[in-house]
Amino acid sequence: MAGDTLQVDLVVDFVCPWCWLGHRNWQKAREMMPEVATETIFRPHELDPSIPPQGLPYKAYMEAKFSGTNRERWQQMREHLETAAPAAGIEFRFSEIEHRPSTVNAHRLMRWARGQDNDAAETIADKLFSAHFKELKDIGDPEVLIGIGVEAGLDRAILTDLFSTDRDAAAVRDEAMFFARLGVNGVPTYIFNGKFAVPGAVAPETLVEAAQEALADGD
């Protein structure tokens, strides 16, 4: 496999806890195959496109979304995520989250980072997850996002100017719809070399197997 570059489109939403876990699993998978050059491209997905730009109160939103029999399902998922988090080096503070943001602005920031520097995009992705789930910040707020971008090496003045407009908001939603039409209806989803997809926050070993299969298929 040496010498090949593996492109992985990683479709995520930054308020999706499985996506943070999935991102960390992909990081571990890459560490397990150091001989493989990889390019990770973060692609947008909105778990709920109906969220208004200013966001909604988190607890009321989640109670409405997971009411009745769904409440037990969410509790089970939450317990699983909180159990898996330490091994992945992450932390979920579900009970303390107060705001459910729209993620369009977060995806806009990722889109701009993608065009600048892949390392910056990788850093920003992790910072976005951490900001929402661990630091309890509003990742729909341009000021929060500008701060994240600057920490990753992006230019504050450029980001301030970009966020003063709605630039690329439509492009983000068009891109999300493109992947939805390809059949991506849940996140995270990993698309290897544009050929086949692996859905869900699967184990790093499973991702290594998928990567090897994708590279072998290209020979």
Q: Tell how many strands the DSSP assignment holds.
A: 6
| Poorly predicted runs of 5 or more residues | none
- How many domains make up the 3D coordinates? 1
**What is the helix tally?**
9
Mean pLDDT: 94
CATH superfamily: Glutaredoxin
CATH class category: Alpha Beta
Indicate the CATH architecture: 3-Layer(aba) Sandwich
Rg for CA atoms: 17 Å
Q: In percent, how much strand structure appears in the residues?
A: 5-15%
Task: Provide the succession of SSEs.
Answer: EHEEHHEHHHHHEEH
Question: What is the structural class?
Answer: alpha+beta
Largest sheet, order of strands side by side?
A: 2-1-5-6
- At the third CATH level, what is the topology name? Glutaredoxin
Quaternary structure: single chain
Distance between the termini: 9 Å
Index terms:
Glutaredoxin, alpha+beta, 219 residues, 13% strand, two-stranded antiparallel sheet, DsbA family oxidoreductase, DSBA-like_thioredoxin_dom, single chain, Thioredoxin-like_sf, 9 helices
What does this structure look like?
The protein has 219 residues and is of the alpha+beta class. It has one domain: Glutaredoxin, CATH 3.40.30. It contains nine helices and six strands. It has a four-stranded mixed beta sheet. It has a two-stranded antiparallel ribbon with strand order 3-4. A hairpin with a 3-residue loop joins strand 5 (189-192) and strand 6 (196-199). The chain is globular, with a radius of gyration of 17 Å. The termini are close together.
Draw up the topology in text.
Blueprint: E1 5-12, H1 17-31, E2 37-44, E3 56-57, H2 58-65, H3 69-88, E4 99-100, H4 104-116, H5 118-133, H6 142-151, H7 156-163, H8 169-181, E5 189-192, E6 196-199, H9 204-217
Parallel strand pairs: 1-2
Antiparallel strand pairs: 1-5, 3-4, 5-6
Helix pairs in contact: 1-3, 1-5, 1-9, 4-5, 4-6, 5-6, 6-7
